């Protein structure tokens, strides 16, 4: 089923995941020429690291951020912070190609004038997953979330407003952009374990960019 969907989706397809939630298939592909060099520069300035959960475990997803605020996790909890706790420096500025992609994807999903102040960069090596959660560390939930998939494919779980609600399985490929907001802003979501493989451009990993209005 999932494999068939991969094959059937054409670049430019807008697949509904909810009333105000869309998968924009291949939306980021035309921008890769600028996006990937900007990503490389960011990862040199603020390297990926495995943050500690409030429970004291190392997260399996490696993360870093750019923008005015970065998402951090440690023994004190989850929150946004203006500085990278590893370097003590401000997070790198959000590259214009990142902000432009997020704004345009949000607009294509019906959310005008999205101006993210934070981009979380997640790296999944094969076997890494992200358990069902809600994004609720932001100051308010008026702005949508824009999530850009790069590298190895994955299956996105898009659930309901209760953790136990049944989740739809949405295939995510390199260049796909998921957008959810409005009535769908607080829906539970996650990522199934990434299958082993080697992406021709990104290698043996999946990288996800999550754009949010945090402050
Ligand atoms: O990697 C993904 O597709 C989802 C990331 C996510 O949900 C998050 O960073 O909060
Ligand atoms: Fe999330």
Reconstruct the topology from this structure.
Blueprint: H1 2-8, E1 14-18, E2 21-24, H2 32-45, E3 62-67, E4 70-74, E5 77-81, H3 96-108, E6 118-124, E7 130-133, E8 145-151, E9 154-158, E10 168-172, E11 177-180, E12 189-191, E13 206-212
Antiparallel strand pairs: 1-2, 2-11, 3-6, 4-5, 6-13, 7-12, 8-11, 8-13, 9-10, 9-12
The structure holds 2-oxoglutaric acid (AKG) and fe (ii) ion.
Protein name: Alpha-ketoglutarate-dependent dioxygenase
Keywords: Dioxygenase, Iron, Metal-binding, Oxidoreductase
Pfam family, one: 2OG-FeII_Oxy_2
**The CATH C-level class name:** Mainly Beta
Structure annotation, total helices? 3
| CATH architecture identity | Sandwich
Largest sheet: 7 strands, antiparallel
Global shape: globular
**Termini gap:** 39 Å
- Our estimate of the beta-strand percent is 25-35%
Rg, Cα atoms, Å: 16 Å
How are the strands of the largest sheet arranged?
Answer: 1-2-11-8-13-6-3
- Indicate the low-confidence ranges by residue numbers: none
What's the number of extended β-strand segments? Answer: 13
Q: Find the CATH superfamily.
A: Alpha-ketoglutarate-dependent dioxygenase AlkB-like
* Mean of pLDDT: 95
Structural class: alpha+beta
Q: How many structural units, i.e. domains? A: 1
Binding site for Fe cation: 133, 135, 189
Domain Fe2OG dioxygenase: 115-215
Binding site for substrate: 71, 78-80, 137, 163
Binding site for 2-oxoglutarate: 122-124, 206-212
């Amino acid at each position: 089923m999932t494999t068939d969907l991969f094959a059937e989706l054409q670049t430019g397809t807008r697949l509904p995941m909810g009333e105000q939630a869309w998968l924009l298939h291949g939306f980021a592909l035309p921008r890769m020429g600028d996006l990937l060099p900007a990503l490389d520069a960011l990862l040199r300035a603020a390297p990926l690291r495995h943050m500690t959960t409030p429970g004291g475990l190392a997260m399996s997803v490696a993360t870093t951020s750019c923008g005015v605020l970065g998402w951090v996790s440690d023994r004190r909890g989850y929150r946004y912070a203006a500085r990278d706790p590893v370097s003590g420096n401000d997070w790198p500025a959000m590259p214009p190609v990142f902000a432009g992609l997020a704004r345009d994807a949000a607009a294509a999903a019906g959310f005008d004038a999205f101006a993210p102040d934070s981009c979380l960069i997640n790296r999944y090596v094969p076997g890494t997953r992200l358990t069902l959660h809600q994004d609720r560390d932001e100051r308010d939930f008026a702005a949508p979330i824009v999530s850009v998939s790069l590298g190895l494919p994955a299956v996105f779980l898009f659930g309901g407003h209760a953790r136990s609600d049944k989740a739809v399985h949405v295939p995510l490929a390199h260049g796909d952009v998921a957008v959810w907001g409005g009535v769908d802003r607080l829906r539970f979501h996650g990522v199934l374990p990434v299958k082993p493989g080697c992406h021709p451009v990104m290698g043996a990993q999946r990288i996800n960019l999550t754009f949010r209005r945090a402050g």
